[in-house]
Specification:
YjdM_C, SH3 type barrels, PhnA protein, N-terminal domain of TfIIb, elongated, YjdM_N, 114 residues, 3-stranded antiparallel beta sheet, YjdM
Length: 114
Amino acid sequence: MMDTLKCPQCSSEHVYEDGGLWICPECAHEWNPAEASAEAAAQGVKDANGNPLADGDTVTVIKDLKVKGSSLVVKGGTKVKGIRLVEATDGHNISCKIDGIGAMNLKSEFVKKA
C-alpha cells in the first residue's frame, strides 16, 4: 500500500518515511497518513458545490457521464434519490440506483444536492 502513497499537497510519488511522518522532497510537505485519513473522514463527502451529503439524500447529476463497459449515458440533470455513501477506494463514493440504468457508483464531484 505504501508504494502508492502520494503527497497530498503536490501529488508527487517520490515520498519517503522519516519516523512517523511522511515527507515529500519536491514540496517539503510533511504529514502523518493516519491523521490525514481521519481528517478526511471527519469532513465527510461533499458535492460539487461543497455541500455535505448524507445517506438518503437526493442529488442531481451535473454533467453527462458515460457508463463504463456500456453504451449507456447518465444525462446531466438526472435526479438520483436515496443515495448511500460508501468507502471510496477508486473515488466513487456514492452508491445508488438510477432509473433505466440500474445500480451504479458515482463520484461526489459530479453531483449536486437537490
